[in-house]
Amino acid sequence: MHQSRRYLFISLGLVLVILVGWLSLRTSAPVVPEAIKHGYSEALAAARAGQPGAARQLYQQLGRPDLSVKRRVWLHAELPNYPSPQALKLADADLQSEAPEVRLAAIKSVVGLVPGGQRSLLLGPLLDDEDQTVRFAAINALLGLTPDELGLYFAPLQQGIDSWEQALKAQAPSAETYAQLARLHLHNAELKEAQQALENTLQLEPGNLPALVMQIDVLDRLGQSDAARQLLARQLKAQPDSAYLQHALGLWLLHHGQREFALLGLSKAVELDPDNKDYRYDLATTLHSAEELEAAQKQLQDIVQRHPSDRKARVLLINYWKESGQLQNVQVLLAQLEQLNPDDPALQQGL
Fold it and tell me: Which end of the chain, C or N, has fewer beta carbons within 10 A?
């Protein structure tokens, strides 16, 4: 009898321990308010459309512990347009997420939020990530940084590049594999190897325009500017209505000090693909360097109208208007920026 009573007490004691543990877990789990729980679609739409309060809604959603992987990934795609210490904190937290897809999305956010030289401290630890795709994404995000910018992560990056090269060479040949090899060779200033990898890419996929433009860059770096120009001319003759190639032509001419002709190529690219904000942004900055300030402002205004969430164009337009003394326009855009994201660094710096 005494023994059975003893077992009863032990069983009750175990139940009590489990119950206390369960209750403590229940109370420590953060409670997400219903309004925030049901605000995901609204927050994503506000961020994409550049609506007032977009940053606050975006941060609220990314701060949720109960958000699905897919939804978290979509929010990260918008985060670089809403920079702040809070945005960086959220991106940094998701670099430690259990889900590789979220870590990948957070890497892209960090690349958009942090200038090259400062991102190595955040992304360097991911060079040892257990997931190969995440490791390779971290390498890609750090390619092109100088040894000084990489600091402690210079050697780990080189080791990562070497192991990725081995992994790529062990795979079945494909255009994508060769193009990635070319990028790694370029980082290591192995120009001949990069050129060969790009030739292999283009043999397998002649229509691969990014590889073609990279090949033109490599030829330039090898001092073969005539060969680069001829390659670009042949492609443009075959595809005169390619906005991608017209844009590449503009940048190539700009690099070679022919700004007037560069403007023709960049303008043609915008004409062929008017919704491409990157083409329009490059046209705007080139117009500005040619002291065509009004035309440059017009291109940036067009970006802001078509893509209200595009912070880069908005901030540059504020600068251009400030430069030309149009302070009323500056105040309007600053007020809009403050409505979007009151913690934007551009506002803190008193743009």
Answer: N
The whole domain housing 275 covers: 239-351
Average pLDDT of the chain is 90
Asked whether residue 80 is assigned to any structural domain, the reply reads yes
Does 158 fall in a domain? no
Indicate whether 246 belongs to any domain. Answer: yes
Closest CA to 244 of 256, 234, 236: 236
Q: What is the pLDDT of residues 207-256, one digit of tens each?
A: 999 999 999 999 999 999 999 999 999 999 999 999 999 999 999 999 99
Please give the pLDDT value at position 117: 83
Measured torsion, CA atoms of residues 301, 302, 308, 310, in degrees rounded to the nearest 10: -80
Angle between helices 209-221 and 225-238 (to 10 degrees): 160
Residue 3 pLDDT class (50, 70, 90 cuts): low
* Structural domain count, the chain: 2
